[in-house]
Amino acid sequence: MRILVTGGAGYIGSHTCVELLLAGHDVVILDNLYNSKIESIGRIESISGKSLCFVRGDMRDAALLGDLFASQTIDAVIHFAGLKSVGESTAQPLEYYQTNITGTLVLLQAMRQAQCKTIIFSSSATVYGQNTAPFVETMPTGKATNPYGNTKIMIEQILQDLVVADPAWHVSLLRYFNPVGAHPSGIMGEDPNGIPLNLMPIISAVAKGQYEALQVYGTDYDTPDGTCVRDYLHVMDLAQGHAKALEYCARTQGCEIFNLGTGNGLSVLELVHAFEESTGIKIPLHYAPRRDGDIAVCYADASKAKRVLGWIAERTPKEMCEDTWRWLCRA
Question: What are the tens digits of pLDDT across the range 67-82?
């Protein structure tokens, strides 16, 4: 199939593109490079040994989307593009709603016009809000604890309403948890523009001496060591989950929701210790107050993905840390 990957130059998108190319698909990437780099395209092609089509542009540009679908026969879309920081979204809600919601609507209108009705949406565990972990796909979503999560809830609802109106659509909503790691080759990994916002690249930046210490936000949560617990999964496991979802989605009409996670939680301090053990580098810590929008515990029940997609997260925290460090030492 020919797959349009929005945000395909980004962290998760680029690793997923490698899996798609290796599986024999043609890949078209649409990315405005707001939080990614053009070098990702060369890295994808180097690892896969295959070429792809790159279009630089914003998914909110209706004319661009119309031209893209008119010039390319797109069989399916994997939709990563959007703003993604929980903390930033609480400070910039309008930017998040404008980019994530409006962008998705423009994309879906272009898909409908082109009669392309297969889409895999990059959703998030933040949609579960104040539910109690482990999170199960059948839990109510309702309202997240931050604007970023609310945009994911709204987009999920838009896609579910679309399927009700037109059952010919093939939709998978992938609620994934906390991706970390890098391609094991060391050629590609998380490479954001500006200051990193996710935990693992910040730990790595401290290890490289770019920051004096890791800011640990909150030590009084109801967890074994007082720090937030998250379900960290290797980005290559996550990329393979998208490939599995594409196989399923292409042959199944309607809308299905899948958690992609390990099913186990690690605290901030446990991830720090895993990194220290994997690299031999001590990470200085600075304890700070809680951040707005963070919840104490978040991890998946991933049994549905195993049962329906035949997918499980296989890589260990040690591999996540080793692959991250290999990438950053080479980058």
Answer: 999 999 999 999 999 9
Closest CA to 147 of 92, 79, 195: 92
Going from the C-alpha of 60 to that of each of 160, 258, 313, the distances in angstroms are: 21, 27, 33
Other CB atoms within 10 Å distance of the CB of residue 235:
26
118-124 and 170-176 as β-strands: parallel, antiparallel, unpaired? parallel
Task: Let me know: does 168 contact 30? Beta carbons within 8 Å.
Answer: no
Compute the distance between CA of residue 17 and CA of residue 3 in angstroms, rounded to an integer. Answer: 9
Q: Which residue numbers are catalytic?
A: 148
Say yes or no to pLDDT of 142 above 80: no
The CA-based diameter of the chain, rounded to the nearest angstrom, is 55
Tens of pLDDT along 250-286?
999 999 999 999 999 999 999 999 999 999 999 999 9
Please report the domains of the chain, with CATH numbers, ordered by start residue: 2-180+233-261+300-314 (3.40.50.720), 199-229+264-299+318-330 (3.90.25.10)
Q: What is the DSSP letter of 225?
A: T
Alpha helices in 76-198 (DSSP H): 86-91, 93-96, 103-113, 147-165
**pLDDT confidence band for 144 (50 / 70 / 90):** confident
Strands (E), 128-220: 170-176, 178-180, 214-217
